[in-house]
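Supplementary Note 3. Input sequence used for the single-chain structure prediction.
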Amino acid sequence: MSRPSPRGVLTLAGLGVFAGVEGLQSYGVSLATPQIAATLKVSAVSLLSVRVPGLLVTYVLTLAVPALSDSRRLAVRVWTTRIGAFATALVLALTGTVRGPWALVGVLALGALFSVPGGVLQRSMAVPEADGTFRIRALSAAQVGILLGQVLLPLGILAGAATSWHKALPVAGLVGLAAVVIGSAVQRPTEAHAVAPPPADEVANWGELTRSWRATPTMLGVAGSLAAIGLLLMPYDAVLSIYLHQHFHLGLRGVSGVFLAMAATALIVVLASTAYADRLLANRPVQLARWSSIALGVASVLLLVGALLSGRTAAVILIAVGTAIANALLPALLGLGMAVTPGTQRTALAAAATFVLTLGSIVGVAVAVCVTDRYGTRYALVSLAGLGVIAAVGLRLASTQVAADQSRCDEQSLRVRPEGAARSGASLLACQGIDFSYGSLQVLFGVDAHVEEGEIVGLLGTNGAGKSTLLRVISGLGIPQSGSVMFGGRDITYLDAEMRVRIGITQVPGGRAVFRSMNVVENLQSFGYTLGRDRRAVDEAIERCFEAFPRLKERRTSAAAMLSGGEQQMVGLSKALILRPKLLLIDELSLGLAPVIVTRLLDMVRRINADGTAVVIVEQSVTTALSLVDRAYFMEKGEVRFDGPAADLIDRHDLLRAVFLEGAAKGVVA
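The predicted structure, written as discrete structure tokens, is reproduced below.
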């Protein structure tokens, strides 16, 4: 479809109404900052600082809101938006009754507490109402609602409905309550909202999401731009009202006139630009990113120049146009972000957008307070706009990666396992097209590898071939630049190392398998407590380790640093005996050890494998590896040169010759 259904249009209208109500408190306080400061007998700059606690509440709440998207009941999300808007309208009316700065802190924090959950879900619930050809217009519903509220509030003041902020905010709150009733009546979310969430064991956490987004250059550019818009809107508005009062001697009605011009201009620009932005998103997303970077730069420059002009009319015109462009960019940037993230992440992305906008506002308030104290409000406005120019440059640089990021997003979406789909047909571990770099040095080039349940797989090659790096990617210690890591049918490419241990992946690193300052028992206890097991279970697991390695029992109180290399590797392998992972990664098991010790360690690896653990072992010694593994990979210069049965590798003299020559050069037997 190219546009929402009539029912979808009503839902978008309802969401827009809620957004408009929820945005009025912050906007009203910004508009009336000089008057509120005078009433509360504090400086206007101090009143800027009063905004911080409310922003911090918003900042914290956005971390928890994505959990609402996991609800299988659409009604939970619908009523969250309705109740949040209703409560925010009540708090808005209450804001006009405050008589002290601490009371203002309280009502601002209370307003954030009620408005954030609904605000996050409004954007995420708008997306299913239309496909990619109408996405930005759907997302702009909330922004249109906010701007309508920003038009009506100063318009009411100018029309004489309220002559002071004490009257204006309660009146706005009462109007907001009526608007919420109307919005609730027209809100009719479609079944598109009722898409079932992913299985419980596959719900992405914030760590996984942020790792994924940090690896997406477009998302970094979008995040920087959203932060810039966060500081160009709320902090800039608050400082602007002070500036207009101090430099042009405008009262509440005069400032309301300027804010009315800004909001009306922004509303016109948003309505006029979203269709064009949608066409760009659908056909040329790279161009949308470039257009957005230019628009952000222009908006920032207009706001900067407007603050420097001494003529009131010219300054208001430039600031109004700059603010209008910044408002139009918000839905465009959200649409661009959603184009490079899988659909399952969109509610979290809506929360993250609020998170980043709030972070920008907090930074903006800090900058505004510091600069205003030292140089005055004019240069505070200039400083805020200057940060917007920097963000525009960052978005322009990120725009070159939009096509690659969108392609990777499509691949991620295809890898999502539908709820109830069987995992039995998938390999235990599957690495596909892994590229990995240390800074500008690329180490892995399109590596494909898989491990079946119960297998022992050898990873062979010369030093510098990328073997240990591949293990780091599998264990979550490194994020690939491209490609995917699947485990049991689940995409874990961006899952952090701690969570990979919990789902059954354990690594024994070469030469670093122990905590050197701890004794043997303490090392083994640390392995057991990794999964939060109780003391009795851990003690029983340690006894199993001592049965397997009697030498460790003799050295149980010895510091790990005092153990021999073989004993340290025994401690490392004990991790597998305690954690009982599905997949064990071993890096350089035999390095520097006597043959008799190596034999004992290999026997233990076989025992671990016999208990059901698949094993991937990186080994320099071809002889040692081929005596143990079922199948082998041979890597050279970051690429897989051989994949097949271990017995077949013996006949590949073209590959093994490099290993034997390297071993001979070091004076060791390969």
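Confidence is low (pLDDT under 50) at residues 418-424, 660-670. Strands lie at 429-438, 441-451, 456-461, 482-487, 490-491, 505-508, 583-587, 614-618, 631-636, 639-645.
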